[in-house]
Amino acid sequence: MDIPTLSNDQEIIESYRKGDREKALKLFCTQYQQKLYSLAYRLLGDHDDAMDALQEILIQVERSLSAFNGDSKLYTWVYRLGSNVCMDFYHKRFRQNSRLEQDDSLVRSMMTPIDRFIEDPDEMCEKTHMEYLVWQGILRLPALQRMVIVLHDLEGLTVSEISKVLNSTANTIKSRLHRGKVALRKILNHDFKAKDFEGLGCFTIDSSGELV
Description:
Blueprint: H1 6-17, H2 21-44, H3 47-64, H4 74-92, H5 105-110, H6 126-138, H7 143-154, H8 159-165, H9 170-189
Helix pairs in contact: 1-2, 2-3, 2-4, 3-4, 4-8, 7-9, 8-9
C-alpha cells in the first residue's frame, strides 16, 4: 500500500481546522478516495455497493474530521472508519435507508472519477483472472477473516497497522489471518469456480501462506 505522506495529511487537517472544509475534503479525496473505493469493493464485492459505501465514508469523514486528535496516523483513522462503514454496509445491505440522513452535496461535489475494477472476464488478462478468482474465494469467508485478508494481502497493511485499524491485538489479527487463509485454501482447493470463470482452473495457497 502506498502510505500517504505526513505533509499531505497535515495539510488536510490544517485546512479543516481553519474552516476551509471544501479544500480539506478536496485534498482528502485526492489522497484517499481511490484507496477507500478499493477497500470497499474488495470487502463488498459489488461496484454499486462500494460506491454507496465510499460516499458514506466521505460523509462521515467530513463530519468527523474535527474529532481527529492526532493520537494515530490519519490513514489509520481513515482505514478504521472505512472498515467500520463497509462492515455496517455488509450487515445492512438488504435493509432500506441504511445511509446516513445527512446533506452530502459537498461530498458529491468533491468526489473525483473512480478507476473501476475490471469485472468482464473477456477484458481480463491471465493475472487478473487469477486475482479475481482468489478474490471471489475471499468473499466467501466470514466477515472478520475477510477483513484481515483484504487489509493484509490486498491493501498491503502490516499486522501492526491492522491491529490499530481494527482496535485488536496483533495476536488476534495473526490468528484471524491464519484461520482465514486456512479456510480460503479449502475453498480454492475444492474445485471452486467463480461465476463466468468455469474451466479456468483453481488456485490455492502455498505452504508459506502465499496466494498462488
